[in-house]
Amino acid sequence: MSEIKEKKIFVLDTNVILHDYDSIEKFEEHDVRIPSTVIQELDTFKKGNETINVNVREFHRKLKLLRETKVEKEFTSGKGNKHAIKFKKMVPALSHGGVSLGNGLGNIEIIRLPKELHPLVKSQFFHSTPDNWILSSVLEIEEQEIKGKRRRVILVTKDFNLQAKADLLGIEVQDYENDKVPNIEKLYMGRGELVHEGLSSLVDVLYKSGKAPIFGQEYSGYIEAEELKPNKFFVIKTSNKNCLVRVDGNMEYFHKVEKIKVAGITPVNSEQVFSVSALMNKDINLVTLMGKAGTGKTLLAMATAIQQLKDNKYDRIIVAAAMVPLSNRDIGALPGNEKEKVSPYMQGLFDNLSFIQSQMKGPKVDVVVETEEEAPTKRKNQKKAPAVVEKIDYITSLLKDGKLRVQALASIRGRSLNNTLFIIDEAQNLTPHEVKTIITRAGKNTKIVFCGDVQQIDSPYLDARSNGLSHAIYRLAGKRIVAHVTLVKGERSELAELAADLL
């Protein structure tokens, strides 16, 4: 006989829905309860262009569809009065007993709050906050279950403080685990080593031809096939020769990886060489780079992008950072235009641009500078002034022409990006859903690059296992058009390396 699963009740906190608007459908056959205070909190997030605002609107659309299911309910008019009248009417099942989420799924119900805070909550926490009302709702459901089916009631929240409060009250509580990476310590690194004397002949072929078949050769027996993945990088080592290689997308050949200079920047270790190779490969449409501060992820991503724009492989570069403002202040609430708003958060990107600018050699670019007389507001009879040609460096010309844009991530929403190299820095601050949304913006001839460090997460509701960067690496590892490199060795300075390791 097949095992019958115990049907549970999961009570969701607001931050779970803000994190994943599809979360209500991720609890299999179990029932979902949403306290009305959560609906009230969500209402404050429905306006805006940030991902959480979009998530709320998508969640509301789901509820709107679920609300169409009606159920007959008996009501009493003038309750407590001797002339009270009982009557029936059709009401949304969503808030009156629950409605099915679909085939194989449980029910969802929006539940009323208790008339007052539960005595156990009052005894520990004195304020009438949304979190305390949620805790009271969970305790009330538990008491109802004790009298009836005795199902387990579990609070689901990404808020550690609420988890701790639930623990104090003896409430079973869980983090939202659906999109978490199983084991961050075993996350795919995108690179490895092949060490054996029997690979000497493979190295000879690679130095002679630039590529070599993986299978069916005398050296193939010294290669562990389970270690291979499309676009995975290796250092092949023998006693007297080494070689850097990449497995091709079809897993048929090793390709020798050369150290190349891009936009004046030269990679200084094997991890950086591998990163440049992945970033410059036109057959790879998505690159993820993960590593601590100072490993060179963002610098290499920007340098390779500028080099490829110079080589006419793309029409434009867009660079953005996943910003987490202090005190959760929305960018829209800050003063100034878009450029002025994002500048404080983008300074690291501009620093990298300045460094690349200082390293690039070559002639200045001629740019026609529009004079005041040539502006669109000039008078009809005004004499046209001669064009003024200014010599500027290549990167400044890209910024001036709009071919290189550093902008807020929110401004990308809804756009289809064609012939674009799109770099997202600080990607560890994105949710899995945000990463999915960004990737689905990719049109023809577009490459997307995510850079980040999962040990430096600023979002209060994300961790090393639940952030979008880890999720993308875990889900997309080994796909033909995807490459990943984990960088470990810091190259910024000895002091920066020491701080990254020990502080």
Task: Provide key terms for this protein.
Rossmann fold, 3 domains, 14 helices, alpha/beta, Ribosomal Protein L25, Chain P, 6-stranded mixed sheet, single chain, 6-stranded parallel sheet, 503 residues
> Total helix count?
14
* Shape, per Cα inertia axes: elongated
Q: What value does the average pLDDT take? A: 87
CATH class assignment of the largest domain: Alpha Beta
CATH fold annotation of the largest domain: Rossmann fold
Major β-sheet strand ordering: 5-6-2-1-7-8
Number of strands: 21
Determine the oligomeric state from the structure: single chain
Q: At the fourth CATH level, what is the homologous superfamily of the largest domain?
A: P-loop containing nucleotide triphosphate hydrolases
Q: What fraction of the residues are assigned to beta strands by DSSP?
A: 15-25%
**Low-pLDDT segments:** 325-334, 367-375
Largest sheet: 6 strands, mixed
The Rg value, from CA coordinates, equals 29 Å
Terminal residue distance:
55 Å
Strand-pairing-aware structural class: alpha/beta
